[in-house]
């Protein structure tokens, strides 16, 4: 239970950070070229675009990842408190 809990605790965070930094790389490349990133269409534009948070654009990914991490934390906590059968 602890191993699965640790996997659920850590894996969603790495997935979220990977997706976030993948998009950040595109945004940064667009800005360095003198453009403005359109967060809704995920393309570089010539005119300024409004900022739309990642939570508004991908609520299932963000909330689902955090929920899996909380479930993993609960599994780790329960696994540490429950005695192992010998």
From TrEMBL:
Keywords: Membrane, Transmembrane, Transmembrane helix
Membrane-spanning intervals of the chain: 60-82
Highest taxon of source: Bacteria
Protein name: Transmembrane protein
